[in-house]
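Q&A log
Question type: sequence-to-structure
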Amino acid sequence: MSNRRTDRYGGSAENRMRYPLEVFEAVRAAVPESLPVGMRISATDWLEHTGEPSWDVAQSIDFARALQQRGLSFLHVSSGGISHRQQIPVGPGYQVHLAEQLKQATGLPTIAVGLITEPAQAEAVVAEGRADYVALARAMLFNPHWPWAAAAALGAEVAAPPQYWRSQPREHPRLFGAGARIGMR
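Response status: OK
Response body:
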Protein backbone atom coordinates (compact mmCIF):
# COMPACT_ATOMS: atom_id res chain seq x y z
CA MET A 1 0.00 0.00 0.00
CA SER A 2 2.76 2.45 0.90
CA ASN A 3 5.41 1.17 -1.50
CA ARG A 4 4.52 2.52 -4.94
CA ARG A 5 8.02 2.24 -6.39
CA THR A 6 8.58 0.86 -9.86
CA ASP A 7 12.31 0.07 -9.56
CA ARG A 8 13.91 -3.07 -8.11
CA TYR A 9 12.54 -2.16 -4.65
CA GLY A 10 8.88 -2.00 -5.66
CA GLY A 11 6.23 -4.08 -7.34
CA SER A 12 6.49 -7.77 -6.46
CA ALA A 13 6.68 -9.01 -2.87
CA GLU A 14 10.26 -10.10 -3.55
CA ASN A 15 11.19 -6.60 -4.65
CA ARG A 16 9.36 -4.93 -1.75
CA MET A 17 11.19 -7.17 0.74
CA ARG A 18 14.58 -6.50 -0.87
CA TYR A 19 15.45 -3.27 0.97
CA PRO A 20 14.58 -4.38 4.53
CA LEU A 21 16.40 -7.67 3.87
CA GLU A 22 19.48 -5.72 2.73
CA VAL A 23 19.29 -3.56 5.85
CA PHE A 24 18.97 -6.63 8.05
CA GLU A 25 21.96 -8.29 6.35
CA ALA A 26 24.06 -5.15 6.94
CA VAL A 27 23.07 -5.00 10.61
CA ARG A 28 23.65 -8.73 11.13
CA ALA A 29 27.11 -8.39 9.51
CA ALA A 30 28.00 -5.46 11.81
CA VAL A 31 26.81 -7.06 15.05
CA PRO A 32 28.84 -9.84 16.69
CA GLU A 33 27.29 -13.30 16.21
CA SER A 34 27.05 -13.63 19.99
CA LEU A 35 24.40 -10.87 20.08
CA PRO A 36 20.84 -11.52 18.94
CA VAL A 37 19.38 -9.33 16.22
CA GLY A 38 15.64 -9.09 15.81
CA MET A 39 13.20 -7.05 13.83
CA ARG A 40 9.89 -5.37 14.52
CA ILE A 41 7.44 -5.76 11.67
CA SER A 42 3.93 -4.65 10.85
CA ALA A 43 2.21 -7.95 10.11
CA THR A 44 -0.77 -6.41 8.32
CA ASP A 45 -1.97 -3.11 6.92
CA TRP A 46 -5.53 -4.07 7.97
CA LEU A 47 -6.67 -3.30 4.43
CA GLU A 48 -7.56 -6.76 3.12
CA HIS A 49 -11.24 -5.76 3.05
CA THR A 50 -10.57 -3.04 0.44
CA GLY A 51 -9.56 -5.47 -2.30
CA GLU A 52 -6.49 -3.33 -2.99
CA PRO A 53 -3.03 -4.83 -2.80
CA SER A 54 -1.77 -4.48 0.76
CA TRP A 55 0.57 -6.15 3.23
CA ASP A 56 -0.90 -9.12 5.08
CA VAL A 57 0.04 -11.94 7.44
CA ALA A 58 0.91 -14.38 4.63
CA GLN A 59 3.47 -11.92 3.25
CA SER A 60 4.75 -11.31 6.77
CA ILE A 61 5.33 -15.05 7.18
CA ASP A 62 7.30 -15.13 3.92
CA PHE A 63 9.29 -12.09 5.05
CA ALA A 64 9.98 -13.60 8.48
CA ARG A 65 11.22 -16.81 6.87
CA ALA A 66 13.55 -14.83 4.59
CA LEU A 67 14.87 -12.98 7.66
CA GLN A 68 15.23 -16.26 9.53
CA GLN A 69 17.43 -17.64 6.72
CA ARG A 70 19.67 -14.59 7.21
CA GLY A 71 20.06 -15.10 10.95
CA LEU A 72 17.10 -13.35 12.56
CA SER A 73 16.99 -14.12 16.29
CA PHE A 74 13.49 -12.91 17.18
CA LEU A 75 10.46 -11.18 15.74
CA HIS A 76 8.57 -8.27 17.33
CA VAL A 77 5.10 -8.19 15.77
CA SER A 78 2.93 -5.10 15.49
CA SER A 79 0.66 -3.84 12.72
CA GLY A 80 0.32 -0.88 10.41
CA GLY A 81 -1.40 2.44 10.69
CA ILE A 82 -1.20 3.89 7.20
CA SER A 83 -4.71 4.49 5.92
CA HIS A 84 -8.02 5.96 6.98
CA ARG A 85 -9.67 2.93 5.33
CA GLN A 86 -8.24 0.51 7.86
CA GLN A 87 -10.63 -1.54 9.93
CA ILE A 88 -8.67 -2.34 13.06
CA PRO A 89 -10.51 -4.31 15.76
CA VAL A 90 -8.92 -2.38 18.62
CA GLY A 91 -9.35 -4.03 22.00
CA PRO A 92 -7.29 -5.78 24.67
CA GLY A 93 -4.65 -7.92 22.96
CA TYR A 94 -5.89 -7.08 19.46
CA GLN A 95 -2.52 -7.76 17.81
CA VAL A 96 -1.56 -10.90 19.76
CA HIS A 97 -3.04 -13.21 17.12
CA LEU A 98 -0.60 -11.77 14.59
CA ALA A 99 2.41 -12.68 16.73
CA GLU A 100 0.88 -16.10 17.36
CA GLN A 101 0.50 -16.80 13.64
CA LEU A 102 4.08 -15.77 12.90
CA LYS A 103 5.41 -17.82 15.83
CA GLN A 104 3.52 -20.91 14.66
CA ALA A 105 4.65 -20.51 11.05
CA THR A 106 8.34 -19.82 11.74
CA GLY A 107 9.16 -21.14 15.20
CA LEU A 108 10.98 -17.86 15.88
CA PRO A 109 10.90 -16.39 19.39
CA THR A 110 8.14 -13.81 19.09
CA ILE A 111 7.14 -10.66 20.95
CA ALA A 112 3.46 -9.66 21.07
CA VAL A 113 1.96 -6.19 21.53
CA GLY A 114 -1.46 -4.58 21.33
CA LEU A 115 -3.23 -3.09 24.34
CA ILE A 116 -1.74 -5.56 26.76
CA THR A 117 -2.26 -3.66 29.98
CA GLU A 118 -3.09 -6.13 32.75
CA PRO A 119 -0.58 -8.48 34.43
CA ALA A 120 -2.82 -11.55 34.07
CA GLN A 121 -3.38 -10.75 30.41
CA ALA A 122 0.37 -10.52 29.72
CA GLU A 123 1.02 -13.70 31.70
CA ALA A 124 -1.68 -15.58 29.75
CA VAL A 125 -0.20 -14.62 26.35
CA VAL A 126 3.10 -16.23 27.34
CA ALA A 127 1.66 -19.12 29.38
CA GLU A 128 -0.64 -20.12 26.52
CA GLY A 129 2.29 -20.10 24.07
CA ARG A 130 0.77 -17.40 21.91
CA ALA A 131 4.06 -15.47 22.06
CA ASP A 132 7.35 -15.84 23.88
CA TYR A 133 7.42 -12.30 25.22
CA VAL A 134 5.09 -9.35 25.68
CA ALA A 135 6.18 -5.77 25.02
CA LEU A 136 4.47 -2.97 26.87
CA ALA A 137 4.41 0.62 25.72
CA ARG A 138 1.44 2.72 26.78
CA ALA A 139 1.03 0.87 30.08
CA MET A 140 4.68 1.56 30.94
CA LEU A 141 4.44 5.20 29.90
CA PHE A 142 1.45 5.63 32.19
CA ASN A 143 2.98 3.67 35.07
CA PRO A 144 6.77 3.21 34.97
CA HIS A 145 6.47 0.80 37.92
CA TRP A 146 4.06 -1.47 36.02
CA PRO A 147 6.43 -4.45 36.37
CA TRP A 148 6.36 -4.08 40.15
CA ALA A 149 2.55 -3.93 40.15
CA ALA A 150 2.47 -6.98 37.87
CA ALA A 151 4.83 -8.89 40.14
CA ALA A 152 2.69 -8.02 43.14
CA ALA A 153 -0.50 -9.10 41.36
CA LEU A 154 1.08 -12.38 40.25
CA GLY A 155 2.80 -13.15 43.57
CA ALA A 156 6.33 -12.75 42.26
CA GLU A 157 9.39 -10.90 43.57
CA VAL A 158 11.43 -8.14 41.93
CA ALA A 159 14.92 -6.87 42.64
CA ALA A 160 14.46 -3.26 43.72
CA PRO A 161 17.25 -0.85 44.66
CA PRO A 162 17.61 -0.36 48.42
CA GLN A 163 16.31 3.19 48.25
CA TYR A 164 12.90 1.78 47.22
CA TRP A 165 12.66 -0.86 49.94
CA ARG A 166 10.72 1.38 52.32
CA SER A 167 8.06 1.91 49.64
CA GLN A 168 7.19 -1.80 49.52
CA PRO A 169 3.41 -2.06 50.05
CA ARG A 170 2.45 -3.71 53.34
CA GLU A 171 0.01 -6.01 51.53
CA HIS A 172 2.96 -7.37 49.45
CA PRO A 173 5.71 -7.91 52.06
CA ARG A 174 7.72 -10.23 49.80
CA LEU A 175 7.58 -8.11 46.63
CA PHE A 176 11.11 -6.73 46.90
CA GLY A 177 12.61 -10.01 48.12
CA ALA A 178 14.74 -10.97 51.08
CA GLY A 179 17.05 -7.96 50.68
CA ALA A 180 14.19 -5.61 51.41
CA ARG A 181 13.04 -7.64 54.42
CA ILE A 182 16.55 -7.57 55.92
CA GLY A 183 16.97 -3.87 55.13
CA MET A 184 13.67 -3.01 56.78
CA ARG A 185 14.69 -4.28 60.21
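Response note: Strands lie at 38-42, 74-78, 110-112, 133-134.
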